[in-house]
């Protein structure tokens, strides 16, 4: 059997210089080529450097582009040198320039990688997310005198075409794996943390097998689901950084602050934010850190999106000292009626969560005052048969709630809806009820009965129990509590619910939250209830939305 031949020298030439190395090596000429592509053909599209030549930051050039495109190996089967890396995982905090870098790489793979019939895919959880990189790439093409002559941008199809090589770059969402071409040369999966599964990624990998040097790149910020596909890829990237030889075809760039590091020490922030002080403002991070130190929910956001740390999916939402500071005048028993000093019924907004069978039913009234604050009062009902379980979950407190009138029992093992309807009718006569926000799960027959009892002047608005549906009310409610502009009068049932509630954040938008039952160890999460939080959030959202809509237009109407 003949001995294997030594591979030839690389021979790659750029700017009049030839690479004379052989075997696995770093080819400076290849690295210089991709850097020159960015510097000479691309421009920035946003901010203070918009329309100026793309200025690579040192971390972009030396931390990502040069090693990613410069490392090569000899491919015996193809008989040529090819890129060492076929998969890249790039993770850093938000607003550090991932999108523009990814757009530039996509264009390089499309037009400058020497590939005929190149198929480049811009991927994300949905088409709107995938468009973020595409839109930047399309603008780069339009602003480049060279690329605009060679490439055709087809916005209606979210596609950029190079007719001279029969190559294209197009947008595809995560659910389009069945429609993929069979031979992608490159792909950019933006914000992998939002990927519903690894199906699209795996389809891209297997489809790229016939290409000699395909490149699949995942860009992402840290997530919150450690069972997700993104976390599995992150974990693999960490192992690659610790032992590059364990997966020589994988490239990893992970900029993060260690989990045990002080999150408030500014010296740690650049570890996750290589663009800090460049096109990311230190003052912005300082302001966000100041807010995060006072709010556990915001601390999680700061850790995840500014420090690039993987965090828990859920976290406790309301510190009990904050809730207690908002008591106002404590009531020994419920006072349901509200009347203005002039004797006219007060305007009110309501939230309703009707339960099924053995669960808690919650009705909340938010009664605004003249100073931008509000009284918040609840009624709660429970089937009589469910009291023993609730008493056990509350350490016996449920019996006192019934005795003092905070909790109303209905006969039997299911909620008596007629008792709920009667109480709502009573409250509708005591206040000027403007709107009832309700959980759509309540069912149309119940909604119709309530509408009949309260009359046509009261608007009934369904609130989807989703991130988009519940986040506005939760955010407004927390802001009111922090400024101590709500008074709950020490309602003990509400306190129990607020003590239990946790919030979960949307994977793709740190500003969106929704309340969930606790999963904390030792809390008995399955026996906890959060109904008072849900109804308060819905009622507050109804009030604040109506208040914004009723404001008088300012002098700049139309601008």
UniProtKB/TrEMBL annotation:
Where is each Terminase large subunit-like endonuclease domain found?
A: 249-541
Q: Where on the tree of life does the source sit, at the highest rank? A: Bacteria
Which InterPro entries does the UniProt record give?
Answer: P-loop_NTPase, TerL_ATPase, TerL_nuclease, Terminase_largesu-like
GO molecular function terms attached to this record: endonuclease activity
Q: Which Pfam families match?
A: TerL_ATPase (PF03354), TerL_nuclease (PF20441)
Domain named Terminase large subunit-like ATPase is located at: 80-238
Which PANTHER family does the record associate with it?
PROTEIN YMFN, PTHR41287
This chain belongs to the protein called: Terminase large subunit
Recorded source organism is Actinomadura rayongensis
């Amino acid at each position: 059997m003949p001995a294997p031949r030594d591979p030839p020298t690389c021979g790659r030439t750029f700017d009049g210089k030839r690479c004379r190395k052989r075997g696995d090596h770093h080819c400076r000429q290849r690295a210089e080529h991709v850097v020159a592509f960015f510097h000479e053909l691309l421009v920035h599209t946003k901010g203070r450097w918009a329309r100026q030549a793309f200025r690579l930051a040192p971390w972009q050039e030396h931390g990502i582009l040069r090693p990613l495109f410069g490392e090569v190996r000899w491919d015996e089967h193809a008989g040529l040198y090819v890129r060492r890396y076929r998969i890249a995982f790039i993770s850093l905090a938000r607003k550090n320039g991932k999108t523009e870098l990814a757009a530039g790489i996509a264009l390089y793979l499309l037009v400058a990688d020497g590939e005929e019939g190149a198929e480049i895919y811009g991927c994300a959880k949905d088409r709107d997310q995938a468009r973020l990189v595409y839109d930047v790439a399309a603008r780069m093409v339009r602003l480049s005198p060279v690329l605009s002559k060679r490439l055709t941008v087809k916005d209606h199809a979210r596609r950029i075409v190079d007719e001279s090589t029969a190559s294209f770059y197009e947008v595809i969402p995560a659910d389009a794996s069945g429609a993929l071409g069979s031979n992608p040369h490159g792909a950019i999966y933006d914000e992998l943390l939002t990927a519903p599964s690894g199906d699209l990624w795996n389809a891209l990998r297997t489809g790229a097998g016939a290409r000699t040097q395909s490149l699949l790149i995942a860009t992402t910020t840290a997530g919150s689901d450690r069972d997700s596909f993104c976390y599995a890829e992150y974990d693999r990237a960490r192992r690659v950084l610790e032992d590059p030889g364990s997966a020589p075809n994988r490239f990893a760039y992970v900029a993060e602050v260690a989990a045990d590091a002080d999150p408030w020490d500014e010296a740690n922030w650049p570890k996750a934010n290589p663009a800090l002080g460049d096109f990311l403002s230190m003052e912005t991070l300082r302001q966000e850190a100041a807010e995060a130190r006072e709010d556990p929910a915001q601390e999680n956001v700061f850790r995840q999106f500014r420090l690039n740390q993987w965090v828990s999916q859920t976290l406790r939402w309301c510190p009990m000292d904050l809730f207690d500071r908002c008591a106002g005048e404590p009531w020994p028993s419920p006072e349901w009626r509200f009347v203005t000093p002039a004797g006219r019924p007060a305007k009110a907004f309501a939230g309703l969560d009707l339960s099924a069978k053995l669960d808690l039913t919650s009705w909340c009234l938010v009664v605004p005052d003249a100073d931008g604050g509000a009284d918040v009062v609840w009624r709660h009902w429970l089937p009589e048969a469910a009291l023993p379980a609730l008493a056990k979950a509350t350490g016996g407190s449920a019996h006192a709630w019934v005795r003092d009138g905070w909790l109303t029992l209905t006969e039997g093992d299911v909620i008596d809806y007629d008792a709920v309807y009667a109480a709502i009718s009573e409250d509708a006569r005591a206040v000027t009820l403007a709107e009832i926000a309700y959980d759509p799960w309540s069912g149309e027959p119940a909604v119709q009965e309530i509408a009949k009892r309260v009359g046509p002047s009261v608007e009934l608005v369904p609130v989807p129990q989703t991130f988009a549906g519940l986040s506005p009310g939760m955010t407004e409610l927390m802001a009111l509590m922090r400024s101590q502009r709500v008074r709950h009068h020490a309602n003990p049932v509400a306190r129990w619910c607020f003590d239990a509630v946790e919030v979960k954040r949307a994977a793709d938008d740190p500003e969106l939250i929704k309340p969930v039952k606790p999963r904390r160890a030792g809390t008995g999460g399955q026996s906890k209830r959060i109904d008072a939080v849900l109804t308060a959030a819905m009622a507050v959202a109804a009030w604040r939305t109506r208040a914004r809509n009723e404001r008088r237009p300012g002098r700049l109407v139309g601008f």
